[in-house]
Write a structure and sequence with these properties.
This is LysR substrate-binding domain-containing protein. The chain contains three helices and no strands. By secondary structure, it is mainly alpha-helical. The protein has one domain.
Length: 83
């Protein structure tokens, strides 16, 4: 995740848990996908951004990872994309 302030002096945020903690204490505001924040944690208020365009979701995996459950996830996601 990126720095949070315009001048580059804001906190470096490494993961979603750190981001939510910083929002909760009033250090940052964030625009995040609904799936990351639903249901809203205690102390967090979520406001939908109704005029935002759709976002893309990707699945990343290691190049040679052919485990059955990884392949099943990619196959299921691909079938949903085609609908």
């Amino acid at each position: 995740m990126a720095r949070c302030s315009d001048d580059g002096n804001g906190p470096e945020i490494a993961d979603a848990a750190a981001l939510i903690a910083l929002v909760r204490i009033g250090r940052v505001i964030a625009v995040v996908p609904r799936s990351l924040i639903t249901p809203a944690p205690p102390g967090i208020v979520c406001v939908p951004v109704t005029d935002a365009g759709p976002s893309q979701i990707v699945i990343a995996r290691r190049e040679h990872d052919h485990r059955d459950h990884v392949t099943a996830l990619i196959t299921a996601a691909a079938s949903l994309r085609q609908k």
